[in-house]
Amino acid sequence: MTDTREARVIVFAPFGRDAQVIxxxxxxxxxxxxxxxxxxxxxxxxxxxxxxxxxxxxxxxxPGSAVHLWLQAQPSxxxxxxxxxxGKRTSxxxxxxxxxxxxxxxxxxxxxxxxxxTLKTAVEAALRARARQYxxxxxxxxxxxxxxxxxxxxxxxxQRIEDRTRELSDxxxxxxNEIAERERAQAALLQxxxxxxxxxxxxxxxxxxxxxxxxxxxxxxxxARLQSSxxxxxxxxxxxRNVRRGARLTSQLLSFARSQSLVPQATDIHTLLEGxxxxxxxxxxxxxxxxLELAHPHPFVNVDRNQxxxxxxxxVVNARDAMPNGGSIVISTSxxxxxxxxxxxxxxELAVAxxxxxxxxxxxxxVFDPFxxxxxxxxxxxxxxxxxxxxxxxxxxxxxxxxxxxxxxRVRLSFPVVDADIADEAEGETATADTARQDILVxxxxxxxxxxxxxxxxxxxxxxxxxxxxxxxxxxxRAHQPTLLIVDYVMPGMNGAELIGHVKAxxxxxxxxxxxxxxxxxxxxxxxxxxSILKKPFRVETLAEAVHIAxx
Length: 552
Prior knowledge:
Layout: E1 9-12, H1 18-26, E2 32-34, H2 38-47, E3 51-55, H3 66-72, E4 81-86, H4 95-103, E5 106-111, H5 116-149, H6 154-226, H7 230-257, E6 265-268, H8 269-284, E7 288-294, E8 300-303, H9 305-321, E9 327-335, E10 347-354, H10 384-394, E11 398-404, E12 408-416, H11 420-427, E13 439-443, H12 447-459, E14 463-467, H13 470-479, E15 484-487, H14 496-506, E16 512-516, H15 521-525, E17 533-535, H16 540-551
Parallel strand pairs: 1-2, 1-3, 3-4, 4-5, 7-9, 13-14, 13-15, 15-16, 16-17
Antiparallel strand pairs: 6-8, 9-10, 10-12, 11-12
Helix pairs in contact: 5-6, 6-7, 6-12, 7-9, 8-9, 9-10, 13-14
């Protein structure tokens, strides 16, 4: 049995509110005792404790220091666990600081800011490890006692000691395996957290870049309408092509950055693949060739285009990594054979095949599991194939994988095809239609984007007013109700989804268009349909069609 001191958690975080925050997290699991100096920390360690949570800036373990000597003098059963909260770094840790952390021995590093749940999980792991050490201590004590009490049974005791030692060895091996698995899970968790942070950063950058592309594209459209000389038309078209390339790039960045509900649209798979050719070639590098073998006669499926692009990109990058010496990747489409038991409807199969190292049969059944990866630790999140699997299932399709050792891998996605009339309707949705003059209110916080939308609508013959935020929009609508509202999503104070919610409550029949390059589609989908979302950057003709659809 351990006494209450050996069950407590020492908290050494003397700066700011760290000690109180840590104590609040620990409170539900163990008694927390705060210390304010290394001397107090040493005293608490000597008295007995289960674990310690320390901040990197407060603890510096010098060679030969009292704490260092205590750590080195631990009995054989003891490996005292520490949870160290480190600062966020943009470069490698100084050698002195790294050596200090190394001297702690059994340490879990958590980079701040860290969530309460992550800290709680780390402390729980440390407490479990210490509890196992206490069991080992008791076992050793029992063994020594038994050896002293039954000297007359020395031969039997020696056998028992041998058996017990084997059991302890097995237990230690299991403990080491558990520690290794825990470290792997912790590394995967940290990688996911980094990816989430990168996603937020990427989304913000892509949003701002989208606004720039929108202003440039809109002004090009206006220039083409105002000046139709052949020389101007040629210059405008070159610039438009580069705007479209930038828009494809931001679309890929946003697809990576956001967690959203799918927005299915009738999509020509062949056109999508041909449009991705440049991106895919850049992603795999010059030593890998990408061949398109597009044979399906009716390649329309109902999918979220951004998520399909991300799925294809994930598969292509995996195929590239399986061919370290280069090779070729074949992306093909074909019809689902009639009578295939796995498909109730006629469908399209999209396959990505490589000639790489292949996947061993022992693990091929796990490749779609979240966080499972065969790549070295720190080089992959294990989420690529999980995203492909989830996207295919959510889109009403299937995904299968075939692989042979040293003979390559083929991943096959299958989707029901869209009826021809639906596909034709989707292709025709961008046709410009004449629309009666509307009284439109534009809500957009970016001055230049707002001005470009206003100018475009005025060119189209509409009466336009504009404001910069949601509160101003509600005030303007109370004074004068427009016939159409066009609103941005990312705005200070009140975002577009929140503004739409207020407007729907007071003016339920008012047509609304959400013009955005970055949106939480789950929130938007609660109040608007996919046809009411206008993704930036968009052309004047696209804006005209959106207005026509909204007020029709």
